[in-house]
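>> received
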Amino acid sequence: MSAVTTATAVRGTGPKPQPWAVLGRFELRRLLRHPALLGFSALALVWMSATYIEQRAQRAGLLYGVVANGPGPWVPTAIGLAIAAGLAADRSRRHDLEPLFTSSPVQRNTRQCGLLAAVVGVGALSALAVGVFITVTGGWDGLPVLLDTDNPTRHVSYPVGTQIAATDVRPSAFELLAGPAALVVWGLAGIAAARAVGGRLLVVLLPVAGMVQLIMATWAPPTPTRWFWPFVTSARYVGWLDLNDDGFGVGIVSGFNVAATGWHLVYLTGVALVLVTVVVWPSRSLRTSVAIGTLGVVLAVTGGIAQLATYTPDLRAP
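>> returned
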């Protein structure tokens, strides 16, 4: 047997990739090039860059917010991913290709699983980006945050010129993973919503939902129920320091709800599994779908209750 024949034989005996994995890589490339994801991600970068350059003091807290599930940097990207994933899920129906897929050897669930894998891939890449970001900024040794442990109240207007020294705080693993996990949940929700209302309507509905999410996570009263939204910061904001008496300033925190963020990850995992069940239903493997959905409900309920039990509104930094 010649060398060429041997090499061909060896390649032929190797494991073949699963169809959903092949489709997942294809859909991942399409998602990363989608104008919605690129456009909204660029909007988040512009917002962060403008804030970072405008006021030096704002950097205390901005860097922490980027890596620790801060809603400002993450929500625009989540909107773009949800729109891109929803349009991808609705692609065959939008172009009247569903009848052609009935004769295709690739089942509908296989195509849906490929898209689900692509959304998870975007989340994994965002987690990698967080790791690179925190390495470049030296955040493994701590990121600057303005702490005021003597003030337990919320929305205090600090006088212009108030001096509060920045304290380096090291983000926990829970906080680092919360942003990518919430991003995946938004992407899965986009796919599930596309099945219900169609892809075109998502272009209108998702930005509105994103604004509601941003308001609930940033400006709403610090009630425990805000932890049921995907993006929620662990920081306990107690005030606002107006830097130049122009309404532009930086938030002051008194501590962080790290334990609640850990349970929030459990809650997000459960929500993601429930959304996966909704997307692939009905499945040829009914038992598997029921098992995944049941596990998702258990995790969502457990994490949801535990995050409320461990949430401490008046948490103070040590």
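>> The radius of gyration is 22 Å.
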